[in-house]
Amino acid sequence: MNYKDLADLMFPEAKEISYYEEKYPERKLKEGAIVTRIAPSPTGFIHIGGLYQGLIAKKIADQTEGVFFVRIEDTDQKRKIENGVSEIVNSLTSFGFEPDEGMISENEEKGAYGPYKQSIRKEIYQAYAKYLVQQGKAYPCFCTPEEIEEIRTKQENAKIRPGYYGVWAKCRKLTVEEMIEKIKAGEQWIVRFKSPGREDRKIKHKDVIKGNVEFPENDQDIVIIKADGLPTYHFAHAVDDHLMRTTHVIRGDEWLSSVPLHLQLFQELGFKTPKYAHIAPIMKNDNGNKRKLSKRKDPEAAVSYYAEEGIPKEAVTEYLLNIANSTFENWRRANPDKPIEEFELQLNKMSVSGALFDMVKLLDVSKTVISKMTAEEVYNNTINWAEKYDEELANLLKKNKEYSLRVLGIERGNKKPRKDIGKWSDVKEINSYMYEELFEKDKTEYPYQVIKEKQAISKILNEYITKYYDENDDKQTWFDKIKELSSKMGYAKEVKEFKENPGKYLAHVGDVSTVLRVALTKRTNTPDMYEIMQILGKDVMQKRFEKAIEEMEK
Ligand code: GLU
Fold first, then answer.
1. Cis (ω within 30 of 0) for the bond into 115?
2. Each residue of 105-134: pLDDT tens digit?
3. What is the DSSP code string of 350-366?
């Protein structure tokens, strides 16, 4: 009786590994091409950190004319949820991170290196497990959960390292005959890796992001095939990333400490090791404490949050690149109009300890992104968002399409476009004074500034609308008229004049403009008032001024 007999008994159906090695040959890519993947579990919650990894993996592959694929790690059948795969795939594609290969919907995939869903790769893992058993590098373990628990308790009591290793690895010491006998007797078994490592020896490893790291060797005889016949993450990672010919394993740094085990698995399986790039998690400043962005505490940890808030995906992507490489910001400043595809992401420039996520900064990036869109794009995007989240806004925009395009076009398409919209949910509030229906509902006070007296205000408004405002005036004439009105009423027509001689005037032209602005919009800050007046039209202006005067009489 030898290992081969044991392996045949354990996996009578399994194919020779040469079958798979030939079926999934080395990829024919140009030199330097990088093959990356993301390997999410379909658990229903798409974390922004997952999207971040997707972006990085895709970008690195694209930059080198490599391959980016999506593999679904669903070997933990208990955690699986319905439509979990579609949710992952849809969120990736909605951000434009289409995979070159892998899962493209719940049950469909593309590419020649599949299946890309682990639960249907069972026979492949079994073939490789059999291969290890044949060489005495893996063995069946018959320990019951109670026995494992007992080992743990003993280790805890003795305050020694937990796990299945050395003297604790009971089944490792069984003879092949004993193993065969137990299997034949119908005892339950799982498969463990026979680790060749020693805890008192160190391994050195160079991670693409973390740099040089040193760890004790792995000496744990970890489970590679579970009782349900499916592999553990570690074993599946080695087999899949080898057969799918991944060159760079880009993954969360919670896996960094598993590197010694993974290197051992690759070595014992006779595989070439991939490069590892361990990404630090996205962090958040929580009252001065830096902590991981948390699924439970932070709504912005969910990818769905951005669509709900109406933050455009382009902005999220751009912001994630900001987090990924601090050089992105300078690049963007130097190349304000280039597509992000032209930015060269560098893995070795990524933060080792975790970049901070800052919502204010994200919205700032978003404002710039939106400022570059056309009125039509803003209009369509806002409707798409509002149809789901703000019916009133959707209806308002649809009912007044041409008008809305003019409103959204204010200070847009020029050199210094307006930058006030950070998310589609801002559009209503920012432009509310441009719609009578919304303005009527605004119950806030008129925020008059320097000129506050009722009489002065009524006079400015009345004079302006009856004697000065003309819809046909160009901007210069329009402004000259406000100056003229100012000077007629005792206000300085230039701010400079006022500053030189403040005693001579009641206030200045800017203060007069503010009265007009506040009466029209109830705001002290708006984009270009000339455009606002042009779009509102004289009738609405008149109505607003009357209302403003009326309010003061109350
Ligand atoms: N399924 C693993 C996870 O979700 C994947 C880790 C990896 O990328 O290898 O954490």
1. yes
2. 999 999 999 999 999 999 999 999 999 999
3. S-SS-PEE-HHHHHHHH
Buried b (16+ CB within 10 A) or exposed e, 417-451: bbebbbbbbbbbebbbbbbeebbeeeeeebebeeb
Q: Do residues 257 and 132 both lie within one domain?
A: yes
Tokens found for residue 249 = 């394993």
Question: Of 279, 312, 342, which one is at a domain's C-terminal end?
Answer: 279
Q: How far is the CA of 39 from the centre of ligand 1 (A)?
A: 5
Residue to mutate, 35, 36, 41, 43, ligand 1, most ligand atoms under 8 Å from C-beta = 41
Q: What stretches of 64-211 show up as alpha helix (H) in DSSP?
A: 84-94, 122-134, 145-157, 176-184
| 310-331 burial: b if 16+ Cβ within 10 Å, else e | bbbbbbbbbbbbbbbbeebeee
- Please report the pLDDT score of residue 44 as a whole number: 84
Q: Which atom of ligand 1 is nearest to the CA of 53?
A: 8
CA distances 162 to 152, 187, 217, 257, Å, are 6, 25, 15, 16
| Model pTM score | 0.91
Please give the distance, rounded to the nearest whole angstrom, from the Cα atom of residue 43 to the centre of ligand 1.
Answer: 12
At residue 77, the pLDDT reads 77
Counting the structural domains of the chain, the total is 3
**Structure-block tokens of residue 153:** 């308790």
At residue 1, the pLDDT reads 79
Intervals of the chain under pLDDT 70 = none
**How far is the C-alpha of 294 from the C-alpha of 319, rounded, in Å?**
18
468 and 485 Cβ atoms separated by less than 8 Å = yes
**How many other CB atoms are there within 10 angstroms of residue 309's CB atom?**
19
Bridge pairing between strands 223-225 and 211-216: unpaired
C-alpha 554 to ligand 1 mean position (Å): 66
CATH number assigned to the domain comprising residue 134: 3.40.50.620
Task: Among 255, 261, 279, say which to mutate for ligand 1: greatest number of ligand atoms within 8 Å of CB.
Answer: 255
Q: Among 209, 244, 279, which residue terminates a domain?
A: 279
Can you tell me the distance from the alpha carbon of 71 to that of 90, in angstroms, rounded to the nearest whole number? 14
pLDDT at site 430? 96
* Ligand 1: lining residues by beta carbon, under 6 Å: 39-41, 73, 237, 251-252, 255
| Helix/strand/coil for 316 | helix
Q: Which atom of ligand 1 is nearest to the CA of 50?
A: 4
